[in-house]
Amino acid sequence: MAKNINPSRLIYRIQFGSIEPNVPDDNGIYHEEFVTGREVWAGLYHLTQNQRYTLAGQDVSQSIAYFVRHDMGLMNYSHVRVDKTVYQVIDYAPDSDNAHNSFDVVTLKAVKKRG
Q1: What is the phi/psi pair of residue 108, to 5°?
Q2: Any idea what the Cα angle at residue 27 is, between residues 22 and 30, rounded to 5°?
Q3: How many CA atoms lie within 13 Å of 23's alpha carbon, on the beta-carbon side?
């Protein structure tokens, strides 16, 4: 998907994982918690204007994209944590090549907290 990317731009440490119910609180209510599955280096990927319009039409205007080294195992994760913010994976575009210079693009949207 992403060609001609400079690997020196891989400066962010992001965590792929999932949201799972945690231990119930005093009232017996389960709260969701991010559980890390894999941590990788990533770089910010700038979406094209056409991609922004497409996402805006899907009510995903507040989205961000990162590129990561090609790894098909990352497709199994539903969420990503960057610093302390949890995002939902809305698109994972893997590179068709399996070369050493292959990168995948992950498009994310911020998870709205309930309560």
Answers
A1: -125, 155
A2: 20
A3: 2
Query: What six digits make up the tokens of 95?
Result: 């590179």
Are the beta carbons of 69 and 40 closer than 8 angstroms?
yes
Q: Measuring CA to CA, how many Å separate 85 from each of 14, 26, 53, 108? A: 10, 26, 24, 11
26 DSSP β-pair partners = none
What 3-state DSSP class applies to 87?
strand
> Model pTM?
0.79
- Of 93, 107, 15, the C-alpha closest to 60 is 107
pLDDT averages per 10-residue partition of the chain, 115 residues = 73 93 77 90 79 57 83 92 91 81 88 64
Distance, CA of 16 to CA of 56 (rounded, Å) = 24
Task: Yes or no: say if 79 and 111 are a contact pair by the CB < 8 Å rule.
Answer: yes
Question: In this structure, which amino acid lies at residue 107?
Answer: T
